[in-house]
Amino acid sequence: MATVTDSELVSAVAKRHASLNGILLFGTEEASISAAARQVLAALKLEDEPTRLISSALRNDAGMLDSAFKSLSLLGGRQSIIVEGCEEAHLGWLLPVIEEPETCNFVVMTAGSLNKASKLRTAATASSRFLTCGFYEETEASIIVRIRSKVATHGLIFAEGAAERFVALVGTDRGIVEAELEKLFTYAAGAKEIAIADVEASCGDQASFDFDKLIDAVLSGQLEETDRIFESLRADGEWKQALIMVQMHLARLEAVRSALDRGENLESAFRAAKPPIFFGQQKTVGRQMKTFSLAALVNAQSVIQQAILQSRQLGDLAEVITGRTLLSLARTSRQLVAA
User: Fold this and answer.
1) pLDDT for 247-282, tens place per residue?
2) How large is the angle between the packed helices 211-219 and 223-236, nearest 10 degrees?
3) Distance of CA 97 to the CA centre of its chain
């Protein structure tokens, strides 16, 4: 029937559920997909608890899904089903549900990353009784546009640099961004403007580790410290944001380096960075500016982008890829520092 955005998802399901048999939620943001599935089920307002099925387990009993999909409750109402871990290889038993012309029970299918050529995604998009919704990591720029719009609906605006500082602290995971925004709205209740200090007070303790220390360790070539901090990240289950945070910082350094190469002074370049380089960071960033040329910054970002792409393609190895990439960058940084 249609592809909807995450912001349209709940309202679309609430309005059209009577004519829908289900929805396919896919992408790289597992936490956001899980949250969306819960929101969809809440929007259906069905009394019975959903039936949960693991797609890979249907290999030995494909009829289990068909039975759950078409069976009526004792009271005659619709039921909900969650089918987790859907993949292209499972199309054989998912396709009959997607293409069913009659109204049956409501199925929420969740999947990992599906490109535009995916047969599963194509089938669900083409179905008159299914919706599709993708959840992929946003860029920093698109997040800033979105959160500015959202704070405006609460009668607030971000002060200069505050939106950028929010993203620097929170990261780019959609679920975390939404949760931290809600905290920020509560903290800033009654105000008209959200200052940088408000952002830091509300979101500064978002993680149990310090990304600034990780970034400094990587860019100063401290291999042992990089490994120690990453192990802390891994133990806390927060390692997924590591490459993104380092990449965001490198992008800021690139902007500063470009400004310096155009002849601007360091203070002006610090102010022009997004978010600005604050006083407490200037000494560290100044040291990093002496180490990294523009070409070195561009190359480091390319390495990270390749690692992020590889980790998404090889999900089971993402943690290993992240750790090795950070250590490789730290090793390169050590060579640049020594040069």
Assistant:
1) 888 888 888 888 888 888 777 777 767 666 766 677
2) 150
3) 29
Predicted pLDDT at 1: 54
The burial of 223, by beta-carbon neighbours within 10 Å (0-12 exposed, 13-18 middle, 19 or more buried), is given as middle
The tokens describing 221, both together, are 């070539």
- CA–CA dist 337, 287 (Å, integer): 10
Across 90-191, the runs of DSSP E, i.e. the strands, are: 106-111, 130-135, 157-158
DSSP string, 44-86: HT-SSPPEEEEGGGGGG-THHHHHHHHPPPTTS---EEEEEEE
State the number of CA atoms in the 13 A half-sphere of 105 facing the CB.
27
Half-sphere exposure of 224 (CA within 13 A, CB side): 0
Residues of the chain scoring pLDDT < 70? 1, 73-76, 173, 175, 204-210, 272, 274-276, 278-280
Dig out the tokens for 99 from the structure: 């293409």
Query: Would the pTM count as exceeding 0.70?
Result: no
Answer yes or no: are the C-beta atoms of 248 and 215 closer than 8 Å: no
Q: Please provide the distance, in angstroms rounded to a whole number, between the alpha carbons at the two ends of the chain.
A: 59
Residue 209 confidence (pLDDT)? 44
How do the residues of the chain divide into helix, strand and coil, expressed in percent and rounded to 5?
65, 10, 25
Give Rg (Cα) of the chain: 23
